[in-house]
Design goal:
The protein is mainly α. Helix content is 69%, strand content 10%. It has a single domain, classed as Winged helix-like DNA-binding domain superfamily/Winged helix DNA-binding domain (Arc Repressor Mutant, subunit A), CATH 1.10.10.
C-alpha cells in the first residue's frame, strides 16, 4: 500500500494542495509525543508560536496570521489562559483591544518545545544545501504571500 501511494506522488498531476497537506500531516506527526508531555493540543502550540512571533497581537490578528478559524483560536486561547500560559490584557492606547502575550510559564514551555521542534526541523532539511535552505524558505514565503492575497 505505501509503495503504491508513493507511486501516486510521482504523478506530477497531483495537486500542490494535496502535496502540502501531506507534508503538513507528516511534519506534525511527531507532535503526538509533545502533546502528552506538555498536555497541549497541536492548535494550542500553533497559537503559542504565533503569540511568540507577535507578542501583543489580538485573537483576530493571530487567526489572520496563522490562517486559522477565529473560533478555533478563541478555544485555544481559553485553554492556554486557564493553564496560565497566556495572558490577555487591554491595550493602554485602546482599551477595547485585547492584547495576548505569553506568561513566564508559557514562555518557558515555548522555549523548551520550540528547541525540540527546531531540532526536528533541522533534520527535515538536513539533506538540503545551505543555498537550497535559503531558496526553500524564500519559496515558502512567496507561497504564503500569494495565499494571503487570494
Amino acid at each position: 500500500m505505501a509503495a503504491r501511494l508513493s507511486q501516486w506522488l510521482d504523478n506530477s498531476d497531483i495537486a500542490l494542495g494535496l502535496r502540502l497537506a501531506i507534508i503538513t500531516n507528516m511534519i506534525v506527526r511527531p507532535y503526538r509525543r509533545y502533546k502528552a508531555q506538555y498536555k497541549m493540543p497541536l492548535m494550542d502550540w500553533r497559537v503559542m508560536m504565533c503569540i511568540a512571533a507577535a507578542p501583543g497581537a489580538t485573537a483576530q490578528e493571530i487567526a489572520d496570521f496563522g490562517g486559522f478559524d477565529k473560533m478555533t483560536v478563541s478555544a485555544a486561547l481559553k485553554r492556554l489562559i486557564s493553564q496560565g500560559r497566556v495572558v490577555r490584557t487591554s491595550d493602554p492606547k485602546d482599551r477595547r483591544r485585547l492584547q495576548i502575550e505569553l506568561t513566564p510559564k508559557g514562555s518557558a514551555v515555548y522555549r523548551r518545545l520550540s528547541a525540540e521542534v527546531h531540532l526536528m526541523e533541522q533534520k527535515l532539511v538536513a539533506k538540503f544545501s545551505p543555498q537550497e535552505k535559503i531558496e526553500f524558505r524564500a519559496m515558502i514565503d512567496r507561497l504564503l504571500t500569494a495565499l494571503r492575497t487570494m
